[in-house]
Amino acid sequence: MKRLLLTFLWILPVSAQSLHGTAALAYWTPDKAFLATDSKLSSLENTFASLGQICKIRRSGRFAVAVSGFYSNSNTGFDAWELITRAIPNAKSVNAAATLAEIAVARKLNAALAEAQAKAPLQFAQTFRGGSYMTFVIAGVDQGVPTWEVRAFEVEGVRKGRQPPSMKLKNVGVGILNFGENEAIEARLPGLENQARFVLADPPKRLFDLILLEAQHVPTKVGPPVSILEINKTGFYWHSLGACSADSPHRQ
């Protein structure tokens, strides 16, 4: 799992296993935000196991959440999506939702990581050699503005970010966050500024293309179908359902 890559650009159930992986991107413009993920289930203990597909963008109340990295450990009952979606539906803001989710995840993550490391020490060390264990992004609309917040659980602690950085900057710039596997994306488009400019031309299509690019590069960790969710002041719209269900209007 790679370290969190984040920039703000001022450019006008299965058997007892630990599940991880994901290619995941979040993108922001003043009137729209997007979450994009792959759907492949990957096992930490058995890299080449074929475990099927899972929806990696979930709805809870007026929020949407995407998770990457270490997201499930059946032996300890750790399930990042369940913990987060249960914690946030009544939150009053995206920031409040992210805070509640951070607390819920923190209560169980360390025990799950310890169990996974004890069970598969070599795979654990290789997978998390970059120092980042798990990241989630929660998106919603605050004061009429599409907003997302990120929490990255790393060796040094929890790294935080949001877009827009403040409501004073709600009408300027774009933001991009790569919170999953990223080697192929970085090779094709070095630097987050290049990636943000590339996506700006057509966010749904370009995000889709970048997720597929990563899937071709690391098929043991990333795989189709691709899910693309748009968040704007009128609601949630699926540009691509992927492995998710149509719990909100689907834009063709």
Describe the protein's topology:
Elements: E1 5-9, E2 18-20, E3 24-29, E4 32-37, E5 42-43, E6 57-60, E7 63-69, E8 72-73, E9 78-79, H1 80-87, H2 94-119, H3 121-127, E10 132-142, E11 145-154, E12 157-163, E13 174-178, H4 183-188, H5 192-200, H6 203-217, E14 227-232, E15 235-240
Antiparallel strand pairs: 1-13, 2-5, 2-8, 3-4, 3-13, 4-14, 6-7, 7-10, 8-9, 10-11, 11-12, 14-15
Helix pairs in contact: 1-2, 2-3
Molecular structure report:
By secondary structure, the chain is an alpha+beta fold. The chain has a single domain, classed as Glutamine Phosphoribosylpyrophosphate, subunit 1, domain 1. The protein is built from 6 helices and 15 strands. The protein has helices at 80-87, 94-119, 121-127, 183-188, 192-200, 203-217; strands at residues 5-9, 18-20, 24-29, 32-37, 42-43, 57-60, 63-69, 72-73, 78-79, 132-142, 145-154, 157-163, 174-178, 227-232, 235-240. Strand 10 and strand 11 (145-154) form a beta hairpin. It is globular, with a radius of gyration of 17 Å. The two termini are 32 Å apart.
